[in-house]
Amino acid sequence: MATDVNVPTLGESITEATVGQWLKNPGDAVALDEPIVALETDKVSVEVNSPVAGTLAEQLVKEGDTVAVGALIARIGEGGAPALTAAAPAAPATPAAVKHEPEPEAEVAGAPVNPAGAGETPRPRESDDPAPPHDAALTLSPAVRRAVLANHVDPSAIKGSGKDGRITKDDVLAAATAKTNSPAPAPAPAPAASAPAARPAPTAERREERVKISRMRQTIATRLKEAQNTAALLTTFNDVDMTAVIDARARYKDLFEKKHDIRLGFMGFFVKAVALAAKDVPSVNARIEGDEIVYHDYLDVSVAVSAPKGLVVPVVRDADRMSFAEIEKAIAAFGKKAKDGALTAEDMRGGTFTISNGGVFGSLLSTPIINPPQSAVLGMHRIEDRPVARDGQVVIRPMMYLALSYDHRLIDGREAVTFLVRIKEAIEDPTRLLIDL
After folding, report:
1. Which of 44, 56, 238, 397 has CA 20 to 30 A from 26's CA?
2. Alpha-carbon gap, residue 374 to 350, rounded angstroms
3. Which of 126, 97, 117, 118 is nearest to 37 (CA)?
């Protein structure tokens, strides 16, 4: 008897999701609680686990389909051979299919990756579509297409070993190995002096790849554009001498890690500095709601971290009441969950202020965009030795640029500058963080 698999509850206000990737194919054995499909929501990617041990009998929806909470998406049969049921019809070839046509141009490098993490390449997945004959346009899965581009092989010359003759990633790698190990062709004889020079043969093919925008990426784009259209965005800059914080970390990092079992990072200092500065400039930690300003007597810091499918902002709640160790542990836990794709909608709910650290990717300067309905975001950047004047002397100091983007409808320039100066003072003299000055 088959067991139904339904879309689980995905979080507050989330009513539907997109089928991102089937992790099991019909006929595959599945264990109890083993993930069988990944769903993409507006905020996170959620894996749906098998409610029983058995064999995946049917996939009732295809990758890319939109499904509602509670919808039936698969059936799990009892152990052994799968039930002989009609599989979901294969999706016809779409304009996303790549047509491989030779053109006389140089080889194409791989697609660039956004260093801030805001536009990572979507997670590759294998397609369930059967491969067409080699004399037709080849429909390849994203993983296979990337392997073809990376190894510069002609997919039309590869005999597929997958289902219905489709080309797999292993087929591409085997073809690339055979190409590398094959003897080099004998050089062609030099043309006669009177003959015109022959045009060199093309070295590679030019290709394009179309990938559907993920639901999360669409939501990010919508919210950022909403911020630009609604808020009066302005960015104010300052720089900060990191000498005191670097010295404090060097002096206490071993004792700190031994006592708290977590490394002492820079984010703990900046979160504490933001909490201190927000007491003097409460509008930075407020929001506009209709014709009212909502002030918060707490600080929930959204910390921007890079996830496989985009930039996400989990929330460190009540950060103003947390110790350095508690802040560092919370951020480290969110970073691990983001890397594993395990963040939940609850992890990213709310937030009154955002900190984005582009410096970990090498960014020197940027103008971050606020995360609505918040009114401000602090951008941190890389630490760089620069000459500065101290007591009439030019000295080298580890400096960092800070950028505060804010909604000018709520926050005046004077308040933004004051907020940045308070952070600068606290970072350059960390004792202020201890005595609340």
Report:
1. 44
2. 9
3. 126
Half-sphere exposure of 8 (CA within 13 A, CB side): 15
Packing angle of the helix pair 169-181, 142-151 (nearest 10 deg): 10
Q: Which CATH superfamily is domain 216-435 in?
A: Chloramphenicol acetyltransferase-like domain (3.30.559.10)
Which residues does 425 contact at the CB level (< 8 Å), separation at least 6?
Answer: 432
Question: What fold, for 3-77?
Answer: OB fold (Dihydrolipoamide Acetyltransferase, E2P) (2.40.50)
> Taking the complete model, does pTM exceed 0.70, yes or no?
no
Measured CA to CA, the distance from residue 7 to residue 40 in angstroms comes to 11
Q: Virtual CA dihedral for 95, 101, 106, 110, nearest 10 degrees? A: 30
3-state secondary structure 32-56: CCCEEEEEECCCCEEEEECCCCEEE
Distance CA 106, CA 100 (A): 15
Q: 9-23, 177-191, 379-393 — which is least confidently predicted?
A: 177-191
pLDDT tens digits for 245-278?
A: 999 999 999 999 999 999 999 999 999 999 999 9
**Domain coordinates in residue numbering, the chain:** 3-77, 93-180+202-212, 216-435
Active site residues: 408, 412
Residue closest to 271 by CA, chosen among 360, 355, 380: 355
